[in-house]
Design a protein that fits this description.
three-stranded antiparallel beta sheet, five-stranded mixed beta sheet, 2 helices, 180 residues, alpha+beta, Zincin-like, 10 strands, globular, single chain, 39% strand
Length: 180
C-alpha cells in the first residue's frame, strides 16, 4: 500500500526545537504556552515504512544544490549538539550523489529540501526515509584531521546508497509486500 503523507507536529519548543518529517515544509509557527508546530507534506506516494518524524535538540548545517533545471534545493544535515564540524564529508557526498544521479540517469531531486539526521543512538546504519534520511552518525560524521581515505569512501558509499533510494525504492517500489 502506497500513501501520501501530510503531517502536523505539535511540541514543546524548549524540549523539541526541531520538528522534521518527510517532504516539503508547508508551514511552521508558534502556538502559545511555549509550544510550536510544523506542517510537512510529501507529495509522492510511498510505502509506509518510509515515513519519518524527528523531533529534538539538534544543530543544523545548511547548503544548497542547484539542479540541472536551475532549481535550488536546500540541503540540511542535523546533528547532535557540538558535531557540526564533522558534517563536511557527508555534505560533499550528498552533493556528489545528486549530481551523479542527474548526469547518469537524468534524475533530478524532486523535493524542496533534502535532510540528513545523524544521531549516535540510531540502531541501524542508515534508513532511506523519503527526503529525511536517518543515519547512525558513525556512518556519516568525520573530522578532516583524523578521517582516513577509507573513512571518506565509506561515508560516500553510505550517503550515496541511501540517497539513490529516492527513486529506486522510495518512488519506484513494489505495490505491497505481496508483490515481492
Amino acid at each position: 500500500m502506497l500513501a501520501k503523507f501530510r503531517v502536523t507536529i505539535h511540541a514543546d519548543k524548549a524540549k523539541y526545537p526541531k520538528l522534521l518529517s518527510n517532504g516539503n515544509l508547508i508551514k511552521k509557527g508558534r502556538e502559545g504556552k511555549g509550544r510550536h508546530y510544523a506542517i510537512w507534506e510529501d507529495p509522492f506516494a510511498k510505502p509506509c515504512y518510509l515515513f519519518a518524524l524527528v523531533a529534538g535538540k539538534m544543530d543544523v548545517v545548511q547548503s544548497h544544490f542547484v539542479t540541472k533545471s536551475k532549481r535550488k534545493v536546500l540541503i540540511e544535515i542535523y546533528v547532535e549538539p557540538g558535531k557540526k564540524k564533522e558534517t563536511g564529508f557527508a555534505m560533499d557526498a550528498i552533493k556528489k550523489s545528486m549530481a551523479w544521479d542527474e548526469k547518469t540517469y537524468g534524475l533530478e531531486y524532486d523535493l524542496d529540501r533534502f535532510m540528513i539526521v545523524a544521531v549516535s543512538f540510531f540502531n541501524m546504519g542508515a534508513m532511506e526515509n523519503k527526503g529525511l534520511n536517518i543515519f547512525n552518525d558513525a556512518c556519516v560524521l568525520g573530522r578532516a584531521e583524523t578521517a582516513t581515505d577509507g573513512d571518506i569512501e565509506f561515508f560516500e558509499r553510505v550517503v550515496g546508497h541511501e540517497y539513490f533510494h529516492n527513486y529506486t525504492g522510495d518512488r519506484v517500489t513494489c505495490r505491497d509486500w505481496f508483490q515481492l
